[in-house]
Write a structure and sequence with these properties.
Elements (H helix, E strand, L loop, with lengths): L3 E3 L5 E3 L2 E2 L2 E2 L24 E3 L6 E3 L20 H19 L18 H5 L5 H18 L2 H16 L6 H13 L3 H14 L4 H13 L3 H13 L1 H5 L4 H5 L1 H16 L2
Antiparallel strand pairs: 1-2, 3-4, 5-6
Helix pairs in contact: 1-3, 1-7, 1-11, 3-4, 3-5, 4-5, 5-6, 5-7, 6-7, 7-8, 7-11, 8-11
Length: about 260
């Protein structure tokens, strides 16, 4: 039987396999078509086994698709969170050094949905695929691989937008992706979906504030940043899943808010 992979629109195609293990791209260095337990280029671990049922797990998967058990370390902050902090800090540097309005001339074009299934290996779980694409885009952005960001960013955006009842963690990921692509109005719009239910949400206010500042809208940026600082102590103490997943970003956004407001 030929294995199949499903893309974010439900279309299926041949899944890449080798030596009975799925072929995948290394999440650490981006080397393509790696089939073993470790990347042949950088040595990073590519997959492990589920501690409950022994099912093969690719690095980055949070739950076992066979039995549903959490993967080892699921929910713990990863190095991905640190480059998000670095990206947010970069926004502030750009705000302070180059106060120009950042705009795009229209919506970002969407990649042909038939292509990614062969190059990325979709699992059929749209949310899991969206999270994997998010990690890939942000890792590529951190490493300065612009072509990879351009290729996978539209796919990540599309995947998250297809998820029904996206939770706050997913909306935060979506807002960050729009911000990475320079779509600051969309980043603010997705942040506002979180703020409708949680007006003091630190991550949503952080994204909205940095995007407003990047657009040159200082009044809006001050509005979001003051709200962030006013409610920070109480809000940051809440055990929201997205706060656990992105813990370093809470303090990072507070520092960004303070630095921006101190500039007067």
């Amino acid at each position: 039987e030929i294995a199949t992979a499903r893309n974010s629109h439900g279309a299926t195609g041949p899944a890449r396999t080798s030596c009975y293990l799925p072929v995948m791209d290394c999440p650490n260095c981006g080397a393509e078509d790696q089939a073993g337990q470790f990347c042949a280029e950088c040595g990073a671990q590519l997959r492990s086994e589920c501690a409950n049922c022994g099912q093969d797990l690719a690095t980055g998967e949070r739950f076992c698709a066979e039995c549903g058990e959490p993967a080892a370390g699921a929910g713990a902050p990863s190095r991905t969170h640190w480059w998000i902090a670095a990206a947010a800090a970069l926004v502030v540097v750009l705000i302070l050094m180059i106060p120009q309005r950042a705009e795009r001339a229209g919506p970002m074009p969407m990649t042909d949905p038939a292509t990614p299934a062969e190059t990325f290996g979709f699992t059929g779980d749209i949310r899991a695929d969206a999270d994997r694409l998010f990690n890939r885009v942000m890792a590529a952005a951190e490493a300065g691989r612009a072509a990879e960001v351009e290729q996978f960013l539209p796919m990540a955006l599309q995947a998250y937008e297809l998820v029904d009842d996206l939770d706050d963690d997913g909306l935060f990921h979506l807002a960050i992706l729009y911000q990475t692509g320079g779509e600051h109005q969309m980043a603010i719009a997705r942040s506002e979906l979180i703020l409708q239910e949680s007006p003091d949400h630190v991550l949503a206010l952080g994204v909205a504030g940095t995007s407003a500042a990047a657009m040159g809208d200082r009044a809006a940026a001050e509005h979001y940043f003051r709200r962030l600082l006013d409610g920070y102590e109480t809000e940051a103490a809440r055990m929201r899943p997205e706060y656990v997943h992105h813990e370093p970003m809470l303090e990072e956004y507070r520092q960004i808010a303070r630095s921006f407001l101190e500039q007067g």
